[in-house]
């Protein structure tokens, strides 16, 4: 796993400064083979069996499927028919969505043009640095469709939100979780205290009153686990659980002294040096943050930087 050095974290409320820590980067998931590469050495088109079969759905259904995939942390790509010229099967406004995990819904008219669009979407969904583009598909000369005509189609990548578990719903989490949700993280906050974990307490965030190891099973470990409970012993247990579960990023709020004690306990319990190095504590870019809102900004900045590098 590739690692890079992360900047020191902000001072904790007790005044300690963060010790330098190693920030673990998430491994890239196995990507779907782009359609252009799937054509083979002789340049033959990929077979229809290589492409997902779209399920029917109007525009609302397609948009809902794209939103659901993004919320699961699964990237995808969407095609929208912009223009139809001459005799062509598509209708402006029709949409087709393909997720990287194979989910596919909608249509751009069917036939050979839809197959060509699907090939483009599969490649786009698999590309880490994919960019949107507008393409014209000529049905006659390019695709061999006797109806002729052409379709102008917008192809756009749709990023998956980063699955994020925040353990503890105290003052820092209350400031941080909605901020993370606004910058592209799918956030679940869990707290064993009913009043703090009440659903709907935090805007744009799933809040759950319960135990972190039970609720956390629903969060994809390719994402992040941020620990900030009201109890040091609970923090320790949550960090150990997050490491065992294999979260790509594990971080905790606390002072430099707390961070050192946490690593000593991890070593005593047999966690490897590599695992101990994966714990980022205190989390957050060093901006001199003191208040919960300032600390939330520092942590969100580090999460954005981590996401860009993974």
| Largest sheet features | 6 strands, parallel
Helix and strand string, N-terminal first? EEHEEEHEEEHEEHEHEHHEH
Q: How large a portion of the residues is in β-strands, by DSSP E?
A: 15-25%
Shape verdict: elongated
Number of strands: 13
CATH topology heading of the largest domain = Rossmann fold
Structural class: alpha/beta
Q: What fraction, in percent, of the residue positions are helical?
A: 25-40%
CATH top level label of the largest domain: Alpha Beta
Supply the CATH superfamily name of the largest domain.
NAD(P)-binding Rossmann-like Domain
**What's the number of helices?**
8
N- to C-terminal separation?
A: 10 Å
List the helices and strands and how they pair.
Blueprint: E1 3-6, E2 21-24, H1 59-71, E3 76-85, E4 95-99, E5 104-106, H2 111-126, E6 133-138, E7 150-158, E8 162-167, H3 171-182, E9 185-191, E10 206-209, H4 212-215, E11 224-227, H5 232-245, E12 249-252, H6 256-268, H7 273-277, E13 279-280, H8 292-309
Parallel strand pairs: 8-9, 8-11, 9-10, 11-12, 12-13
Antiparallel strand pairs: 1-2, 3-4, 3-7, 4-5, 6-7
Helix pairs in contact: 3-8
Task: Explain this structure.
The protein has 310 residues and is α/β, with parallel strands linked by helices. The chain has 2 domains: 3-28 and 161-309, 3-Layer(aba) Sandwich (Rossmann fold), CATH 3.40.50.720; 37-158, no CATH class. Helices cover 31% and strands 22% of the residues. The protein contains 8 helices and 13 strands. The strands form 3 sheets. It has a 6-stranded parallel beta sheet with strand order 10-9-8-11-12-13, with helices on both faces. A 5-stranded antiparallel beta sheet has the order 5-4-3-7-6, with helices on both faces. Strands 1-2 form a two-stranded antiparallel ribbon. A hairpin with a 4-residue loop joins strand 4 (95-99) and strand 5. Helix 3 crosses helix 8 (292-309). It is elongated, with a radius of gyration of 23 Å. It starts with a strand and ends with a helix. Mean pLDDT is 81; it is low at 1-46.
